[in-house]
Design a protein that fits this description.
Layout (H helix, E strand, L loop, with lengths): L1 H5 L13 H7 L2 H4 L4 H20 L5 E6 L5 E5 L8 E6 L5 E3 H7 L22 H7 L1 E10 L2 E8 L2 E2 L4 E5 L5 E8 L12 H13 L5 E6 L4 E5 L5 H8 L10 E7 L2 E9 L6 E6 L2 E2 L5 H20 L12 H5 L2 E8 L16 H21 L1 H30 L2 H4 L18 E6 H11 L5 E6 L11 H4 L3 H10 L16 E5 L4 H17 L1 H5 L3 E4 L4 E5 L2 E5 L2 H11 L4 E4 L8 H9 L6 E3 L5 H12 L4 H10 L9
Parallel strand pairs: 1-10, 14-16, 17-18, 17-19, 19-20
Antiparallel strand pairs: 1-2, 2-9, 3-4, 5-6, 5-9, 6-7, 6-8, 10-11, 12-13, 13-16, 14-15, 20-24, 21-22, 21-23
């Protein structure tokens, strides 16, 4: 009986019926994807998306975003302004008509985007965006310019603070201004907005929304940027390709089919990588969807048809694969759909089946016409596809050779993989270290139960400048592929991953930074699934060891060093680590490999288009952009060994 009394009652009183705002605060992951830095930025995106919707409707030409010194954010547009006045159908708890601004700001599922009258096309279709932001903010102030009046309403954690007030008059101005401060009761981590992350998002929005000026100001660091691109996504493709050599001018497609706006911009370049991005109602669908599938399949079919028709592919030759026709391709596809179906509230994947049909139709017609009218450009594209097909065939043979060998067989050379005894991949770690010296210390200092060590001899191949067949001929790359167990390219399978954490551990000098960048380039280009799955990390070895009497401190920056020396006194013994090999195994374990004490940086890609451009600029063939980057950032370099 006593045992039964301990059990939790499950009856009608156990069922919680959370109302809108309360439910958002209880389950933020359902609305903005969580409470991490990504979700924090998503708050800003939701508010800016509403302003972009006004631009798509043809009523907004300027959007101003400001991060204030206290990390509150203001988003202001010159659109129509939220309607003010009693709502015709929504009632409050007393049965009285709710104020329309309060409906928009507090009711989940409310908005002007459902009936088709307020907006023909919109990105914010779930009706939860701005109300979710309100629910997850410490406070919000909404100001509306409409019909010659300036209105203001304030909220505390989603709850209206009294009735809406008229605080002034305006002449011919209209628009909405929303200021909010994220709630640290919800976002409990030590996080804040990143200027560069937001800049990338606003740049993309400006590219896919022609004729709109987006101004972004960060008062915390006195930084400001303004975006306006008359060329739209054609300008976007040129921006992505500014460090590459185009094989032809950008091909632009714009068509309206059954009320759905289709737009695409396409250019083949001399690079070996594919850079294709998709947008639905200005929202970057990072996981693609039906519109992206339509673009890719259409290009493959058009290129194959042209090559067959003009005798550039012989009867005995197989058709080009999708991979063959996408090597060196930079393309943007953007659709404007009155009723888009997204996979989730965070809108990362478009699901509408008709989008694939219409994009395929529009792109096939326009790109096919371009090839017919530009035979020289067509031959250059087909020639690149032929070279890609041959290289892919060679890569397949090389890859098969790698796959046929087990990790044990391919890594029997002295000084290579020192494996761990644990076989559960969720518990294991692989440290990729530079050189035998660091490898020796790491092997002796590690926990052999769950930590494996793979030393690399010298610098691996720059995978930004090589095709897969050449990459697979590099011994260090082949060792890495074999050790990981996931394969590469078409044969990549995350299920085969032998280590849950892959940790890049290099010296804190120029060569170490270069090796780390080469490895990051390889993972970004050929194993992005490891990054997306949160498996890739960068170790943070200390820069200094400071000892005084019986006290020893390890510090990771010059700022920490200065403070430690001040605390311990000028007589402290200071040792600067030039490389991991200078540490004895115990020191390396204690500072860099012991899960209790170490610091690991997880590698993540927040904006694939910007990461693509950055890797291309840093590791590609074009010298001038890299030289300019180095000259621009030379003064901010730290810990450069000369």
């Amino acid at each position: 009986m006593a045992e039964k009394e301990k059990k939790i009652n499950y009856d009608v009183s156990s069922i919680q019926a959370l109302e809108g705002i309360e439910h958002v605060r209880k389950r933020p992951g359902m609305y903005v994807g969580g409470t991490d830095i990504k979700a924090l930025h998503h708050l800003v995106y939701e508010v800016v998306d509403n302003a972009i919707d006004e631009a798509l409707a043809g009523y907004c030409t300027a959007i101003h975003i400001t991060i204030h010194a206290d990390s509150s954010v203001t988003v202001e547009d010159n659109g129509r302004g939220i309607p003010v006045g009693p709502h015709p159908s929504k009632k409050d708890a007393q049965g009285q008509p709710m104020e329309t601004v309060d409906v928009v700001m507090t009711v989940i599922g409310a908005g002007g985007k459902f009936g088709g009258g307020g907006y023909k096309v919109s990105g914010g279709l779930h009706g939860v965006g701005v109300s979710a932001v309100n629910a997850l903010s410490e406070w919000v102030v909404t100001e509306v310019k409409r019909a010659g009046k300036l209105w203001q309403q304030k909220y505390q954690r989603g709850v209206p603070q009294g009735a809406i007030k008229q605080i002034g008059k305006v002449k011919d101005e209209t628009g909405t201004k929303l200021t909010f401060k994220f709630d640290k009761q919800i976002f409990t981590e030590d996080i804040d907005y990143r200027f560069d992350t937001l800049v990338q998002r606003f740049r993309e929005m400006s590219f896919v929304t022609r004729g709109v000026t987006i101004r972004f100001k960060d008062e915390r660091a006195d930084r400001e940027m303004t975006f306006y691109f008359e060329g739209g996504i054609t300008s976007f493709v040129r921006y992505l390709n500014r460090n590459r050599q185009g094989l032809h001018p950008v091909v632009h497609v714009e068509k309206d089919i059954e009320g759905i706006g289709i737009e695409a911009a396409i250019q083949y370049t001399d690079s070996y990588t594919e850079s294709v991005y998709s947008f639905a109602n200005t929202i970057n669908t990072i996981d693609g969807g039906t519109h992206l599938t339509g673009l890719r399949s259409s290009l493959t079919r058009v290129v194959n048809d042209y090559a067959r028709k003009n005798g550039l592919l012989k009867d005995a030759d197989p058709n080009f694969s999708g991979d063959d026709t996408r090597e060196g391709l930079t393309a943007i596809v953007s659709i404007k759909h009155p009723d888009p179906q997204f996979e989730s509230q965070t809108k990362v994947k478009l699901m509408n089946p008709e989008a694939q049909t219409y994009v395929t139709q529009a792109v096939a017609e326009a790109f096919g016409t371009f090839l017919d009218e530009n035979p020289q450009a067509a031959k250059a594209i087909i020639s690149k596809c032929l070279t890609s097909a041959r290289a892919r065939d060679a890569a397949r043979k090389a890859r098969d050779l790698v796959i046929r060998k087990s990790a044990l067989e391919s890594l029997t050379l002295p000084g290579k993989l020192a494996d761990c005894s644990e076989r559960d991949s969720s518990k294991t770690e692989l440290y990729i270290v530079e050189g035998d010296s660091a490898g020796g210390s790491a092997k002796q200092g590690r926990d052999r139960h769950f930590q494996a060590i793979l030393p690399l001899r010298g610098k691996i191949l720059n995978t930004e400048r090589a095709r897969l067949d050449k990459i697979l001929g590099n011994n260090e790359v082949r060792s890495l592929i074999s050790a990981l167990g996931v394969g590469i390219g078409d044969n990549f399978d995350l299920e085969g991953l032998r280590y849950g954490r892959i940790i890049i551990m290099t010296d804190a000098d120029v060569d170490g930074s270069h090796i780390r960048t080469l490895l990051l380039t390889f993972f970004f280009r050929y194993m992005p699934q490891l990054i997306d799955g949160g498996h890739l990390y960068i170790a943070q070895p200390p820069l200094y060891r400071i000892a005084y009497k019986n006290q020893v401190k390890y510090v990771y920056s010059d700022k920490e060093k200065d403070k430690a020396v001040k605390d311990l006194g000028d007589k402290a013994n200071l040792q600067r680590y030039k490389g991991l090999g200078e540490m004895n195994p115990d020191q390396l374990w204690e500072t860099t490999m012991n899960p209790t004490n170490r610091t690991l940086l997880q590698v993540a890609v927040e904006d694939a288009a910007e990461a693509d451009r950055t890797f291309d600029m840093l590791m590609g063939d074009a010298v001038d952009p890299r030289k300019k980057f180095i000259q621009t950032h030379a003064k901010s370099v730290r810990n450069l060994d000369i």
